[in-house]
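Chapter summary example: a protein plus NAP.
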Amino acid sequence: MAKQAFDHWQPITEDDATIAAALEDADIPTLMVALVHLTGDLSGLRGDIRPVGGFMAAPQGGLTAAQQAGVKAQALEVLKAYRDGKGLLPKVPDEAAIRQMMNFLVGADLPGEYIPFLASELSLHGEDPFGQPAIDAIPREQRATLKTIIIGSGMSGILAAIRLQEAGMPYTIIEKNADVGGTWLQNTYPGCRVDSPNHTYSYSFAPKDWPQHFSPQQVLLNYFDQIATDYKIREHILFNTEVVSAEYQDASANWQVHVQKTDGTQDTLTANAVITAVGQLNRPRYPEINGIGSFDGPAFHSAVWEHDHDLQGKRIAVIGTGASAFQFIPKIAPDAADVVVFQRTPPWVVPRADYHADIPEGKHWLLNKVPYYAKWFRFLSFWQSSEGLLGSVKKDAGWQSDLSVGQANDDLRVMLTEYIRSMVGDDPDLFEKTVPKYPPAGKRMLIDNGTWLTTLKRSNVHVVTDPIVEINPTGIKTASGVQYDVDVIIYGTGFYANRFLAPMQIKGKGGLDLQRHWQGDPRAYLGITIPQFPNLFCMYGPNTNIVVNGSIVFFSECEMRYILGCLALLLKTGHQALDCKQAVHDAFNKTIDAGNEEMAWGAPNVRSWYKNEQGRVTQNWPFTLREYWEATRTPDAKDFKFIDAS
Ligand code: NAP
């Protein structure tokens, strides 16, 4: 399949009334900025109509109904003229104009560093935002000499394959499952949906007309499934095959990868490079509770949902109130006799009215047809869901509180507490249980359209905060001696996120074992390369996760661009392998640790899957997404030692 055109939009053929109706669903600030591409007129962004940005900004940036009507009326005239070919063609504004448009849209003065980033995101000249010029510069026949094994065919593995294929580089994907999709294939629990906005949780080169802002699991699975088919990735995948171990070969400076198929047969494959694309959240974690396993009824984990049990009229115990339980409890509660929710720590809940809503028809039209509307919408979504929130989750020097890490974080705490009060304030016991006692963004904040807190108020839903001491044949006992007899237990207890790359046994130079080397403290340079493990590249590796809901797809695209740059370095220099220098890796990790200590998720009173047993944040990237984009643009040859086969 040909590369996606990055400046693609459909022609407008509809009549005036249809355009006017579609404009009723417009995000007005986005529309105002998109119109500049047609009119070249920035005066509308200088006037008295100015959206107010920021976290939980009012709908339409707080513009009045009259202001919105004025913009829509003007937009109708412009779009009619564009449709009728009256000299209006999409234009690329100059840098100063782009800056003005960007600042207008987000309601803030962003530093100049955002200009190249935004220009790339917008593909203003039809460029591929995550293309790697260094690999393009290598002759195609030379690229074909370097073979890569990709482990995993989820979101990152499919991306790696597409990029290698585009570059004309041979690869094989090893996939333990029977199909592609990774987390979206495995997690089938009721209510599963993406909780990052879909217009950023998608590949830059494959925009989709998403049915919802936060689409359900099946839609996500179909997206990745379709892309794997369209890009002809499937014929390169060994399905039902698990990587048992991978060993770097000192003599030949390449990798041997040992695999086992579900039928028990084994094989060994050889490649110049290995890309791990196994995700962080796919090995279910069951809690360490006395008697686990003794329960007589069905008991299963959210990530391996057992759909054959009829939950109707059943007494159900759910352990955990993380992102997964948060989505499936509201789905199972209406039909259950009772749901007992065992909550250790409540999540912070961020209100978002359109969390489950369909994208209105008019908005689909705008996204598909108005030049640059979709691109600016993606940037706004990126800004509002992640980049623009970082200031609210950062420490203030000298701030002393267990409830917040700074003034902006405390303002956020108050705002979110008021939301909880507005939903359950009439039930003091539930209010007390649902207001977290740790800083917002200490753990992942969860998006709610009222469903979660309304569900907890149901008469058949009981939130138990008394700690569990035992699981027994009939149910669960808590510390105060209360026994909860139930028919089913569901574990919403998360994943072994910290065991990066486990259970694979990975050996680097001199047979160095990766897990023993890490000792429970996984680290990598840029989350991608690990000293003494030449030509091993991680996607979604250590410290590449995000807490405020930005897109992991964005990180993967950055990582793959960097990996291609590394492969280009090998081809350019003629060496067989590259090995990250220890000092470079260590200095990077020092910066990461210092950064994470400044953030809410680094607060000492917060326990989460972001930290290892020593309390170090092994999972998260503490800086802006733009900074990761910048850091991973092109690898610096000086960061590596180059190795030749002996
Ligand atoms: P999680 O966030 O790790 O939540 C696990 C829950 O189980 C927590 O509430 C935890 O309490 C509780 N728990 C663990 N051991 C327990 C015990 N012994 N007794 C009582 N409670 C116990 O796991 P998750 O909900 O599966 O989510 C993991 C991550 O997956 C999310 O952070 C997110 O990144 C991703 N995810 C994304 C989506 C989405 O995009 N839609 C959906 C689901 C998951 P404590 O908080 O006290 O440890």
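Key point: The pocket of NAP is lined by residues 193-195, 281, 287, 289, 302, 319-325, 327, 342, 344-345, 444, 468, 492-495, 607, 609 (CB under 6 Å).
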